[in-house]
Amino acid sequence: MPELFQLVLYHMSEMFQTGNEEVDRQFGGGIPFPSLMLMEGGHGVGKSAMVALFMKGLLDEGKKVLCITENTVKEYIENMKAITFNFSHAFLQNRLTIMPLHVYGIRWSKEQSAYLLPVIGKYISNSFKETNAVVIDSLSLLTVFSDETKILDFFTQCKYLVANGMGVIITIHPNDIPANIAPRITGSVDVYLKLDSTNVGGRDVKTMKIVKLIGSETNPESGFAFEVDQTFGIKIVPISTANA
Questions:
Q1: How far is CA 48 from the centre of its chain?
Q2: Which CATH superfamily is domain 32-242 in?
Q3: pLDDT at 196 over 80
Q4: What is the pTM of this model?
Q5: Where would a tag sit more exposed on the chain, N or C end, judged by fewer CB atoms within 10 A?
Q6: What is the CA radius of gyration of the chain?
Q7: Where are the extended beta strands (E) located within 34-188?
């Protein structure tokens, strides 16, 4: 496998839109594809909702998506439906494959858990011909007992898949990646987004900072505030409105 920074540069030949005009505008009109995206944030800051929006955009453009999640299939579909993303049809039509990481009744030992990340990496590679994009929400369970070499090897593998036309979207919590290799990881990805939550004028909102976006056709906004609405999905919140 090539070293993390020795992969041949590839051409992001297209953009995909999420279908949410306000969000697409923040990204300069769309998101480069294929690309390796890393989305970082703590619990409850909207990572899963934003990833679901990206998945919807990929599915609407005819891509086949593999989603690796900490939820069961039923839980994931129901949770996303609660915030307006109905993936039932795509799942039944085999355009969306959902792979749950949790298996009820099985307890992973520390030694077994250490091999989860390489196993998932191999599974993704074996799915290359049938899948256009992979979403991992989140990487936490896979890295908790992984050493630095396994983590670096996994991201190198992701870069290789992207170089050959597959899109990869990964969510992480802060500190999922050891601090001494984090700069190498964030420096190697094409899209790096940081999510947080804050209170503006007495109103709780979520925020996204676009730290890095390689391949955009126009200059994106550096960041924005948003809400996850059970009726409208993701809504951009103008700072002036949040202050009202």
A1: 8
A2: P-loop containing nucleotide triphosphate hydrolases (3.40.50.300)
A3: yes
A4: 0.91
A5: C
A6: 17
A7: 36-40, 65-69, 96-100, 133-137, 167-172
